[in-house]
TrEMBL record, chain A:
InterPro entries: 2Fe-2S_ferredoxin-like_sf, 2Fe-2S_ferredoxin-type, 2Fe2S_fd_BS, 4Fe4S_Fe-S-bd, 4Fe4S_Fe_S_CS, Beta-grasp_dom_sf, Helical_ferredxn, SDH/FRD_Iron-Sulfur. Keywords: 2Fe-2S, 3Fe-4S, 4Fe-4S, Iron, Iron-sulfur, Metal-binding, Oxidoreductase, Tricarboxylic acid cycle, Ubiquinone. Belongs to the succinate dehydrogenase/fumarate reductase iron-sulfur protein family. Its cofactor is [3Fe-4S] cluster; [2Fe-2S] cluster; [4Fe-4S] cluster. GO terms for biological process: respiratory electron transport chain; tricarboxylic acid cycle. It catalyses: a quinone + succinate = fumarate + a quinol. It is an enzyme of class 1 (oxidoreductase). Binds 1 [3Fe-4S] cluster. Binds 1 [2Fe-2S] cluster. Residues 134-163 form the 4Fe-4S ferredoxin-type domain. This is Succinate dehydrogenase iron-sulfur subunit. It comes from Alishewanella aestuarii B11.
From TrEMBL, chain B:
The lineage of its organism: Bacteria, Pseudomonadati, Pseudomonadota, Gammaproteobacteria, Alteromonadales. The keyword Transmembrane applies. One of its GO terms (cellular component) is membrane. InterPro entries: Fumarate_red_C, SQR/QFR_C/D. Keywords: Cell membrane, Membrane, Transmembrane, Transmembrane helix. This is Fumarate reductase subunit C. The chain crosses the membrane at residues 29-51, 63-85, 105-125.
């Protein structure tokens, strides 16, 4: 059994824009899109460039567009598609070569929200946390930084300065952590014009998230946090 | 001449004006946002009605006649449908923004609230009971 894989190829040394190339790939029930890409690279065309690492939806490296929907190659299977499928680099990011995107903008945004525990206390004891305190942020803590939500977000496509879903999820994840004291340092980023308010709740990020952590909910809960933060700052002497 | 910085030539993907036609998810989103357009017509009707009321009975009667025309009724029926669609999407998004209770409970609660308010208004204006 074979399927036709159409890949948008781009060679920065020769091409002005990506163009489609077709490959015939054998498949069975367990063949993932990543398996198909590896088959093409190893058997048909060694010049095909793409990122991958863990093959188990943990590393977040193999994000591509499959039939215009952002997907992890390792978590998407040929059996679920008709005889032809089209694969291209993630939307909204510059394409370095073939399926490899330049994720630098996303990483800058992630860094801007200080995605780590900030705690000034000199206490060296372990920070105890109750199951209820854990539950507050746990659902936002499984982000693997794959960038699929950025490829799904038309607001990020229109304005690359928008912090974007994963960075805001991560800011929320630390803001809601009882061990963290860095909320005041993160709120200016979230309150700004490229923060939570640039989101119009298209909600597609939540559909494509391979970890099902609903970035759209996190961003819009961030609006509640941002409004509260503003009200408090008005009435604070 | 070898130049590691110069060898990079990333392709910037343009975002076309028709991005929202790309698949059904974006289409449904744009439909949700577009529900405001018929609603504008309804608001215009309502404001015209209030204004005509201040202008005396004959003005008000001619506004009533305007509202009874088939195309106005058809447009306002569209307004109602659009509002229901917007309500449906809004009610489903709300529990994700403020997760106070399990989502199905919150969605059912909002619809029950809508029905209760509608019944109250119908009763106030004498359409029922």
């Amino acid at each position: 059994m074979e399927k036709t894989i159409i890949i948008q190829r781009y060679n920065p040394e020769q091409d002005q824009a990506p163009s489609a190339e077709r490959y015939q790939v054998p498949f069975d029930h367990s063949t993932s899109v990543l398996d198909a890409l590896l088959y093409i690279q190893q058997q048909l065309d060694p010049t095909l460039a793409f990122r991958w690492s863990c093959r188990m939806a943990i590393c977040g490296s193999c994000g591509v567009m499959v039939n215009k929907i952002p997907k992890l190659g390792c978590k998407t299977f040929l059996r679920d598609y008709p005889a032809e499928l089209t694969i291209s680099a993630l939307d909204h990011f510059p394409i370095e070569k073939d399926l490899i995107s330049d994720m630098a903008v996303f990483l800058d945004h992630l860094q801007a929200v200080k995605p780590y525990l900030i705690n000034d206390s000199k206490n060296t004891e372990p920070h105890r946390q109750t199951p209820a305190q854990l539950k507050k942020y746990q659902k936002f803590s499984s982000c693997i930084n794959c960038g699929l939500c950025y490829a799904a977000c038309p607001q990020f496509g229109l304005n690359p300065e928008f912090l974007g879903p994963a960075a805001i999820v991560t800011a929320q994840r630390y803001n809601l952590d009882s061990r963290d004291q860095g909320k005041a340092q993160r709120m200016p980023q979230l309150n700004g014009k490229n923060g939570v308010w640039a989101c119009t709740f298209v909600g597609f990020c939540a559909d494509v998230c391979p970890k099902h952590l609903d970035p759209a909910a996190a961003v819009n809960q961030g609006k509640v946090a941002s409004a509260t933060d503003m009200l408090i700052s008005i009435f604070k002497p | 001449m070898p130049d590691s910085a110069g060898a990079r030539r990333p392709y910037l993907q343009p975002l076309s004006r028709s991005w929202w036609l790309k698949h059904s998810f974006f289409l449904r989103y744009m439909l949700r946002e577009a529900t405001v357009l018929p609603l504008l017509f309804f608001c215009g009707c309502l404001l015209a009605g209030l204004y005509s009321l201040s202008q005396g009975e004959s003005q008000y009667q001619s506004w009533l006649a305007f509202m009874a025309q088939p195309w106005v009724i058809a447009l306002n029926a569209l307004v109602l449908l659009a509002s229901f669609y917007h309500a449906k999407t809004f009610f489903e998004l709300f529990p994700r923004v403020m997760p106070l209770l399990p989502a199905p409970l919150m969605i059912a609660g909002q619809w029950l609230g809508t029905i209760a308010v509608a019944l109250l208004l119908l009763w106030l204006f004498g359409a029922i009971g």
